[in-house]
Amino acid sequence: MGYDPNHFIGSPYICWNQTLNLRLALLLSRRVFEDLRTRVFPLSRLMAPKADSSKKADPKAQALKTAKAVKSGATFKKKAKKIRTSVTFHRPKTLKKDRNPKYPRISAPPRNKLDHYQILKYPLTTESAMKKIEDNNTLVFIVDLRADKKKIKDAVKKMYDIQAKKVNTLIRPDGTKKAYVRLTPDYDALDVANKIGII
């Protein structure tokens, strides 16, 4: 491959700067052509890359694999970064020994302090309570202050084998709790009162 000295002389690289020496321009052009002639390009750059047929998987198998991965859900979880509240590092104490006490710490198992005997203290036998029995099919009890309506209902069921429809409670001025236990239509409050011994 030859080179033309007029290639750089008539070009705008020389025209715009008259101070550039012609000899320098010729040397520059010669160097460019020699550089192109002696440069070695790797064969892989000149040739198009071959498609690897071994890596190309069957589209059906690829689709089945993707569907399985989607169905199983995410297989990884992002671990939350622990917030450090101290500037010092310590080895964690991970040893956990099985409990083998030499003596029991509690001598007797704890008993239920609020059983049905404790919840229902006694039935009221006042005139207003009797009127409630006759007119509203309702029994009146003095109960424990800590007892709620659910516990009162369960205690009545356990002690007298009667089903309560509704329970209303109030705390009297003397500090005791009174419960109005309305029975279901299946039970008669008068019969239950006779059975208990109120009347």
UniProtKB/TrEMBL annotation:
GO molecular function: mRNA binding; rRNA binding; structural constituent of ribosome
InterPro entries xref list: Nucleotide-bd_a/b_plait_sf, Ribosomal_uL23, Ribosomal_uL23-like, Ribosomal_uL23/eL15/eS24_sf, Ribosomal_uL23_CS, Ribosomal_uL23_N
Domain Large ribosomal subunit protein uL23 N-terminal residues, every copy: 59-109
SUPFAM superfamilies named among the record's database cross-references: Ribosomal proteins S24e, L23 and L15e
One family name in Pfam for this protein: Ribosomal_L23eN
Keywords on record: Ribonucleoprotein, Ribosomal protein, RNA-binding, rRNA-binding
The UniProt record lists the keyword Ribosomal protein: yes
This protein's GO CC annotations: ribonucleoprotein complex; ribosome
Keyword DNA-binding recorded: no
An annotated GO BP: translation
Family that this chain belongs to: Belongs to the universal ribosomal protein uL23 family.
Cited function: Binds to 23S rRNA. Binds to a specific region on the 26S rRNA.
Record protein name field: 50S ribosomal protein L23, chloroplastic
